[in-house]
Design goal:
Structural class: alpha+beta
Length: 192
C-alpha cells in the first residue's frame, strides 16, 4: 500500500467487546462469539462499498476485505481480532481508502482513487465522518442471527468476480487451476 501525505484516508476503527465475566463494560459493546469473526469483515467491507456506491462508484468486494472498482483496487483493509475461547475481546480494523491521490508508484499494479473516477476532490475529515456513519449503520447486524444471515448474503452478492471463471493459484501446492467463485463458507472461507 502507498498513500501520498494528506490525499487519502488511512485510519483504524477499534472495537472493544465486553467480556461476559466482567462487571465493568461501560466503554465496550456487547459480547460476540469467536465464530462471528468474519462478520466483522463483512460489516467493514459493506460499509465502505455502500459509501462508494452512494458516491456514484460501483464497487465490489475482493475476498476477504479489499474493495475493487472494475479491476482496480480502491481500498484495502487489515483486520486483527483478539479472542478468548468463548468471545471476541477486540477488533482493530485498519482501512486505507484512496480519495484524492492520482499519481501512484509504478510498482503498484492496479490502484485507483475516488478523484480519478469522479474528477472531484474530497475533504478527508468530512469523508471520514461519512464512512464512520456507514460503519455504525452496519454494526448492529453483529447481534442478530437473522441480520447476520442477511449480511452474509449481501456480502456474497457483492463479491468481485462472483460467478466468473478465473485462474487461481493453490497456495499450498502452487498449482494454477480454473474455478468459479460461488460464495463463502460459514467461517468466511472462499468457495471456488
Amino acid at each position: 500500500w502507498s498513500s501520498a501525505d494528506g490525499e487519502n484516508l488511512t485510519f483504524s476503527i477499534v472495537l472493544k467487546f465486553s467480556d461476559i465475566k466482567s462487571k465493568r463494560n461501560s466503554d465496550k459493546i456487547s459480547h460476540l462469539r469467536p465464530t462471528a469473526q468474519f462478520a466483522i469483515s463483512e460489516i467493514a467491507t459493506l460499509a465502505v462499498s455502500s459509501y462508494l456506491k452512494d458516491n456514484g462508484i460501483e464497487a465490489k468486494i475482493k475476498w476477504p476485505n479489499d474493495i475493487y472498482v472494475g479491476n482496480k483496487k480502491i481500498c484495502g483493509m487489515l483486520i486483527e481480532n483478539t479472542a478468548s475461547s468463548d468471545s471476541i475481546l477486540s477488533s482493530v480494523i485498519g482501512i486505507g481508502l484512496n480519495l484524492n491521490q492520482i499519481d501512484f508508484p509504478p510498482e503498484l499494479l492496479n490502484p485507483v482513487s475516488m478523484k480519478t473516477l469522479t474528477g472531484r476532490s474530497y475533504d478527508l475529515h468530512k469523508e471520514l465522518e461519512r464512512i464512520i456513519s456507514y460503519f455504525c449503520k452496519y454494526l448492529p447486524f453483529l447481534y442478530d442471527e437473522v441480520s447476520l444471515a442477511g449480511l452474509k448474503d449481501k456480502y456474497i452478492s457483492e463479491l468481485y468476480r462472483l460467478g466468473v471463471e478465473c485462474e487461481f493459484t493453490d497456495c499450498r501446492t502452487s498449482i494454477i487451476f480454473k474455478g468459479t467463485i460461488i460464495g463463502i463458507s460459514e467461517h468466511g472461507l472462499l468457495k471456488v
